[in-house]
Amino acid sequence: MPADPAADAAPMPTPPGRRPRKAAPRRQPLSQELIVATAMRVLDAEGLDAVTMRRVAQELATGPASLYAHVANKEELHELMLDRAAGEIPLPEPDPARWQEQIKELAFESRRVWTSHRDLARVSLGSVPTGPNLLAVVECQLALMRAGGVPERVAALAVDTLGMFIDADAVEDTVYTAKVGPGEDPWAHFHRYIAELREYLYALPPERYPNIARMARLLTEPEGDERFGFGLDILVRGIASYVEDGPAGRKAV
Questions:
Q1: How far are the Cα atoms of 20, 22, 28, 190, 208 from residue 25, in angstroms, in the given order?
Q2: Per residue in 138-179, pLDDT tens?
Q3: Domain 96-240, CATH homologous superfamily name and number
Q4: What SUPFAM superfamilies would the database entry show (predicted)?
């Protein structure tokens, strides 16, 4: 009698002495979104240097070649990751009366997002914004400055200056925390280092370094947020100094 095709397709019972086989997990279809999300998990766990096409492919239980249909290379993957992170930055609605405060608030939020993803800021420091989320941040910065009466040319140049300042501060933060051993509180380590540095500066020969020796506490006292805010204040005051009197804008006080 010929075999019944339906019977051949039916599941077979487990033979005596063998364990039942576990069903293989259904592989999720590859997409650019899935690849970037997986790369972000690797980044947050191990840092940017660990994010390679091979490593992401391993996480997805596939070969690196299968990723290239969705992402051209590692550099594009890093840029896509940066743009994904930029989507976490809240963008304010421009208020002409508060444009300077809003520029600073946006900068603090950008720095917060960059530093929340290990050393991703390294990608931002060396790239030009082209992704939709990064362009939205630039558009918001321009809109805030234009709402305050900043001339177009000044606003266009200021976007680059602000970006470099935010990126550099975030990179410095991640470089420092990377030096701290696993399980150690980076801020406790930082405070110990600053205390030692202050004592060193106080001990410098005052005849050779009179200002540093005298200002050792002032040079070492302010912490990250205060220093970042001070730098932002200098930049925003400088930008505001270009605002012209008249209906299009107000002079900075």
A1: 15, 9, 9, 45, 70
A2: 999 999 999 999 999 999 999 999 999 999 999 988 887 777
A3: Tetracycline Repressor, domain 2 (1.10.357.10)
A4: Homeodomain-like, Tetracyclin repressor-like, C-terminal domain
